[in-house]
Amino acid sequence: MSRLVQRRDARPDVEKAPVVDDVGFKDHKPSRRSRILLPLAVATTLLLTAGTVFKDDLGFPWPGEPEVTPPFIREGMKRCAQLNQAPSPHQATEARKYSDRYVKGTGPVLLKNATLWTGEEDGTEVIHGANVWLEGGVVRKISTGEDMDQLFEAAKNKGDKVETVELDGAWVTPGIVDVHSHMGLDPMPELRGSDETNSDKAPIQPWLRSLDGFNTHDAAFNLSIAGGITTMLVLPGSAGNIGGQAFTFKPRWTAENTPQSMQAEPPFVIRNGEWQRTRSWRHIKHACGENAKVWYHNARMDAAYGFRRAYSEGKKLKDEQDAWCAAPKKQTGPLPDSLEWEVMADIIRGHVKVNIHCYETVDLNDLVRVSNEFQFPIAAFHHAHEAYLVPGLLRQAWGKTPPAVAMFANNARYKREAYRGSPYAPKVLDEAGLKVIMKSDHPVLDSRYLIYEAAQAHAFGLEWNRALASVITTSATVAGLDHRLGYVRPGYDADLVVWDSFPLAVGATPKQTYIDGIPQIINPHVVRKPAAAQQITPKGDYDKEAAEAVAARGDPDLRPKKRSPNIVFHGVSNLYLSGIKTQGEGEPGVVVVEDGKITCAGKDCATTSSAEYETVDLKGGSLAPGLISYGSPLGLEEISAEETTHTGDPPSILDDNKITSGLLVHAADGAQFGGKDELMALREGITTGVTSPSTGEFLKGMSYSFSLGARHALESGAIGNHAAALHINVRQFGDPLGDSSMSVATVMGVLRRLLHGEAGQGEVAAAFGKVAAGELRLVASANSADTIAALIRLKRTVPAMRLTISGGQEAWMLADELAAEDIGVVVAAPRTFPMFWDQRRILPGPPLSHLTLPAYLHTRGVKVGLGIVEACDARLTRFESAMAYAAAPTTFSRQDAVDLVSTNLVDVLGLNDGLHAAGGVDLGWVAYEGDMFSLTGRVRAVRSPGQTAVDLF
To answer: What local confidence, expressed as pLDDT, does residue 62 receive?
Structure first.
């Protein structure tokens, strides 16, 4: 469904571009004077340095028998010049008229009337009504007036047709630079034949290169371009401590269609039939911590020794080479070299950007010490979840400039070294004077939404200009590309993004992405955003929370500190709660809560008792039902990578005939409360979790719903429904999230027997009997349209069955059939991504398709909910519904968007089934200050399920 088409060689008759050097800057002809002196200079040089010397017996330089310099010395001297030549890429200036990546036939583009963020003045410069001329693959001119006549005339004389794009004030920024990506190495969809992320040969392999495994056919290129990505630093994986060398790429496909042609700025090129070094930066990947422990069983002591040994080899080689280069003509052998360790020597020379995957304090400290021991600078620590706790340590790294910190906005707590990650870390690090970069680790996070990482950093305290810079100018600088990327300047690469709203607004989406002056999206689908979405949003005020996180060394007490049963809310603009009538006309204005219940809403409300009331001003905010998080192991595990924090997986029901012997697992029996992810989600308005047994087998078991605010399972309202629905997996063969030992046909055969009562008498058979009778909902995890079709066919043979599809990435292909059979869909993850083969036919949403998957299903009459895959993302459930609304504001109302993560999930997950309490499952309610659909809105009060007192934040 992608509408992305590459445009190149559109007009082959265009004037031939001038010759450019390896970084794309025009060669200048020497002056007449220099042309006269050049032969003399060359002759003198040849006389003094050529391979022939004339001496007599006494050593005087008189003509005599010629002595030829050996070839190995001449080659060594050439290498010596390269070794001692520091990276010095040419600075782009207005004189630069053509890029090295210029595509012949690309015509000029005039972007008119833009709201232009240039990256200048610490990222605060915004030019309104800007006109930007793109030509030759570079930015040629920026103006706020009608003074492009000369450029128009020159284009006309060359026969070029200028494409003029009226932007009507749309935001324009430089293209996004992702400094941590595995695109092209970790393939989308995931296929073993093209998975090149890690080598398993050894933990120290600096000689490996990501360029050598880069797949130019990765399906993620188009998607990332649609998110504004124009450059990425593609790193080897982090299985080993030194995984290899990294390279910068632009995701635009080229006519040559090779990895080398997609490089943004190669450190080596093929020139004149030789593999030659350029003046550009090299890059390398290091990794500390748990990954090497898992892959190679290396303790941190092993890793630290491994780093020191590798750098010792590099220093040894550097010293030997320096000694040779100090007196080349006295050498009797060739210049010392090592294919394995030459890059380590180059690091010590300061010619390589060192990027280090490093989470916690002990590892950060190890590498800071190594950098001082061997005297090399560190470009950036990546992930660095504990860096905000030790900013002073980072300043101790060797060199004049401290390492930058390239980080996630939220992705944390999935392993022990990530447990202390904080959403306030970007703010803390920035205020400590360190460079902050937001990155994707694609495909860990889909780099298409890297701007969302910056938006979260801004929402939780980072200034807007620093947040934008964190994915554009700062990232370009740290990657050694700010001489040509990261700013809108004359002479810089014509990599720009036109946005449909302020880039840090919730759901901000590119209207168009230009790479090298070429529009990458043909006939983009654009959503018209309201005027409010164009405004620069203020940062969130989280000074107190950030200070608490630092003071608690990354593990603050997240439990609510204040409670009250009686509250009066003022400044209420909206109620998204059913069954509550407002007193008086217009906005509710006031909402009164007594004993945890809303007793009045409206301008005419007054308190009815003499009890004391807390007063809270919501400043135009709203009250909404508590939101539901479904799809992650929330409530069954605390740290994904630590088995001791799990309740454990049930055994395979396919072994020893267990499928008929009756073992049915109930997730509620392993319920866990008070986890970090749960408490963080509660503070963001998520009151209820729904979890099924954590297993990838065919039969998962019975799900349960629970309160995120409860302290233990016996507290009032802690468990809403002990046995909500029966969950199964029906996934493609080989899907690592499913049972790879069973084909889909086998699963469907087993399922058919169970639904038709042909599998004995046990508890499992009884549960499927209830499913067949319509007394218990069946939730089937499936993504492939073919698998979903098989489930629909089976549903037609069991008419009473109530079925929900979970996952559903290809469900849009069967929307009408799903609606006809009243089959609900929980879209998980809400922003579709072709992670596996059975998800490859996604509906990508704007700008690549008219609607997103949730919106399309909704328009066809399918009841839709949104699911969250990672436990750490549960706290972002509200923002997922806000993005769904922002992407389809004419399809979803605001109430619809709230329903996607509340009442719709109650229905399609069977949360009211089997409950006898009036009103069904209790979701509680949440009070938001400001707009709950904005990243700047925040939770001020939560009434958890089953509670009368209200938690105040």
So the answer is: 52
User: Among 718, 715, 620, 711, which Cα is nearest to 668's?
Assistant: 718
The mean per-residue pLDDT over the stretch 683-710 comes to 92
In a domain, 42, yes or no: yes
In this structure, are 778 and 880 located in the same domain? Answer: yes
Assess whether the previous peptide bond of 829 is cis (omega < 30° from 0). Answer: yes
- Residue 694 is predicted with a pLDDT of 79
Give the pLDDT confidence score for residue 46 in this predicted structure. Answer: 38
Whether the upstream peptide bond of residue 66 has omega within 30° of 0, thus cis, is no
- pLDDT at 874 exceeding the cut of 70: yes
Assign 916 a pLDDT band (cuts: 50, 70, 90). Answer: confident
Tokens of 242: 């030194």
877 and 777 within one domain: yes
Whole-angstrom Cα distance, residue 2 to residue 522? 10
Which is it for the CA torsion 249, 252, 258, 264, positive or negative?
A: negative
- Stretch (H or E) spanning 950: strand 950-952
Count other Cβ atoms within 10 Å, centred on residue 131: 21
Interval 464-491: pLDDT, tens: 999 999 999 999 999 999 999 999 999 9
Q: How far is CA 647 from CA 229, 670, 695, 726, in A?
A: 40, 6, 11, 19
SS3 592: strand
Which pLDDT band holds residue 147 (cuts at 50, 70, 90)? confident
In 391-517, beta strands by DSSP E: 404-407, 436-438, 496-499, 510-515
Same domain, 841 and 693: yes
Domain extent for 879: 627-921
Token pair 């008792």: residue: 609
Do 866 and 934 belong to one domain?
A: no
Q: Same domain, yes or no, for 818 and 950?
A: no
- % residues pLDDT > 90 (the chain): 83
| pLDDT range class, residue 411, cuts 50, 70, 90 | very high
**Helices 785-797, 744-755: crossing angle, 10 deg rounding:** 20
| pLDDT tens digits, 293-311 | 999 999 999 999 999 999 9
Cα–chain center distance at 284: 20
669 Cβ contact partners less than 8 Å away, ≥ 6 residues apart: none
Confidence class for position 210, pLDDT limits 50, 70, 90: very high
870 domain-assigned: yes
- Alpha carbon of residue 751 to chain centroid: 37
Shortest CA distance to 170 belongs to which of 89, 115, 94?
115
Q: Are 943 and 870 found together in one domain?
A: no
Rounded (to 5) percent helix, strand, coil in the chain: 30, 20, 50
- Would you call 162 helix, strand, or coil by DSSP? coil
Residues 891 and 949 in one domain: no
Q: Over the chain, what is the mean pLDDT?
A: 91
> Where would I find the beta strands (DSSP E) of 603-742?
614-625, 627-630, 686-691, 699-702, 704-707, 719-721, 725-729
Do residue 778 and residue 643 come from a single domain?
A: yes
230-264 burial: b if 16+ Cβ within 10 Å, else e: bbbbbbbbbbbbbbbbbbbbbbbbbeeeebebbbb
Q: What is the pLDDT of residues 533-572, one digit of tens each?
A: 999 999 999 999 999 999 999 999 999 999 999 999 999 9
- Whether the upstream peptide bond of residue 87 has omega within 30° of 0, thus cis, is no
In a domain, 289, yes or no: no
Two tokens at 865?
A: 């909910």
Tell me the pTM: 0.91
Task: Find the CATH number of the domain harbouring 616.
Answer: 2.30.40
Place of tokens 């979701």: 923
Residue 847 maps to a domain: yes
Non-local CB neighbours of 803 within 8 Å, separated by 6+ positions = 777, 778, 779, 780, 791, 795, 821, 823, 824
Give the torsion sign (CA, 585, 591, 596, 599).
Answer: negative
Give me the number of domains the chain comprises.
3
